[in-house]
Automatic annotation (TrEMBL):
Entry protein name: TFIIE beta domain-containing protein
Listed GO MF terms: DNA binding; TFIIH-class transcription factor complex binding
Region of interest (Disordered), residue spans: 207-238
Organism of origin: Elsinoe batatas
Intracellular or extracellular location(s): Nucleus
Lineage: Eukaryota, Fungi, Dikarya, Ascomycota, Pezizomycotina
One Pfam family here: TFA2_Winged_2
Stretches that traverse the bilayer: none
Amino acid sequence: MATLKRKMGDPPIMVHEVSSGREIMTQVVYAIDYLKDKDKPIAFGDIWQYLSIPQDQQRHRPALLKALMSHPKVEHMPTKQGGQHMFRFKPMHNVRNGDELVAYLQGQKTAQGISVKELKDGWSDATQVIEGLEKKGTLLVTHNKKDNTPKMVWLNDTSLGMKVDDDFKLFWTNLRLPTNDGDIRSELERAGLTPTSQVKETIKLGPQKKEKRRINRKAGRSTNTHMNGILKDYSFKK
C-alpha cells in the first residue's frame, strides 16, 4: 500500500492549529449573534463568559479578541470599560432608532431610498417605528404587495407639501374613468378633443401620367470625326 510522503521543503501540517482556527471562527459567529441580540456595547469579558470557553482552550482568548477587533460586522468601541475592550454589532446602516434614521437620510448626498430589510439588520423594531414616522409625514414609504409591510423609505420634504381642498379631494375620489376604449373615445370627442386612436384619412392621389421615353431613331453610322487625322479606317476589311 502506497504511503503519502511530505516533499522536502513543504511546511509541516499542524492539525491542532487548523482545528483551533476553526473553533475560534465558530466562536466568533456565536459572539456576533450575541452582540446582535443585545444591540448595545458589550465588554469582551462578558462575551467570553457567554461563550463558555472550556478551560483547556483559554489560550485562544487573545486570538478571539483579535478576530473580533478586525471583523467587519463588529464595531470596536474607542473607549474601554473597566480596562476591557468594548464591542457592538455593526449593521449595514448605522441606524438603531427613528431619530438616527431621519438624521441618516438627511445626511445622504442623494435622494436614494433605503431598504427596510437592510435597516432591520441591526434594528429589530424598525418596522413599527417606520410606520409611525410614515403616519406623521416624516417619511415616504413603499410597501410590499403581499403583506403591506414597509419596503423602502425616503425622507419626506415637508416644504414641498401642498394643501388640497376637501372639495377637490371628494371630486377626485368620485371621478370615474370610462371602462373601455370606445367610451374613452366618445368622451374625448364630446369634449372637443381628438383621440389618438382616431383613424387618419389617407389622401388618394390620382393616376400619374408616365412620361414616354424618347427613342433615338436616327440611323447611320457615327464616327469620331475629331480623330480623323489620327485613326485609320479599317471598315473596308469587314
